[in-house]
Design goal:
There is one protein chain. By secondary structure, the chain is mainly α. It has a domain at 55-183. 78% of the residues lie in helices and 0% in strands. The protein has 5 helices and no strands. The chain has helices spanning 2-11, 31-77, 84-109, 119-126, 131-183. It is rod-shaped and about 80 Å long.
């Protein structure tokens, strides 16, 4: 598999069709239409990515909060005495839960993405400019939004990733505390 992938990536030259394939048909699409469709698609992907990151933030926060609460409650009602090692593991889990809260909070502060052009400006321009020129301008505005959104999404993704990492460490610490409590007499 790796040999095939290496061969595919080294034998194909950008700008040339792959062997055995014909170049894609133009289908009457102008370069302005292609540019617009591509820019619009990228902007849609960025908006969907923001939604996915928001969902992951919420899921990490929910799971981390639930698991920590349930574990503390179960250990609290347990008739067994919690060993010191387990208490340390619970303290570490609490630290990672707080880290999860902070990272989730910082990720949730990053809310909006740029979406250009402004509809009122499009209306104004459409009264003076038509056809491919207007489409080119709208595409350029989409591109400006894409470039501005890139940094916002990277920042948000880093905070979401840190929150998920904290969730993993919290879960490992809670599991360690539970296992030690069950094993140590």
């Amino acid at each position: 598999m790796i040999r095939w992938l290496t061969r595919k990536s080294t034998t194909h030259q950008p700008g040339k069709p792959e062997p055995g394939t014909s170049p894609p048909a133009n289908n009457g699409i102008s370069s302005e239409e292609m540019y617009y469709a591509t820019a619009r698609h990228f902007l849609d992907i960025q908006l969907a990515t923001m939604d996915v990151l928001d969902t992951k933030t919420w899921q990490s926060f929910s799971v981390g909060s639930t698991v920590l609460t349930v574990t503390f409650a179960l250990l609290n009602i347990s008739v067994r005495e919690v060993p010191v090692i387990a208490l340390w593991a619970l303290g570490i889990a609490l630290f990672f839960y707080i880290t999860l809260l902070v990272c989730s909070f910082l990720a949730s502060l990053i809310r909006g993405l740029e979406f250009r052009p402004n509809i009122a400006t499009v209306k104004e321009h459409s009264e003076r400019i038509t056809g491919p020129f207007l489409q080119q301008w709208v595409s350029n505005e989409h591109l400006a939004s894409i470039e501005e959104n890139r940094g916002v999404l990277v920042r948000k993704a880093r905070w979401v990733g840190a929150a998920q990492l904290a969730l993993h460490f919290e879960a490992a610490s809670l599991a360690t505390a539970a296992i030690v409590t069950l094993i140590v007499p």
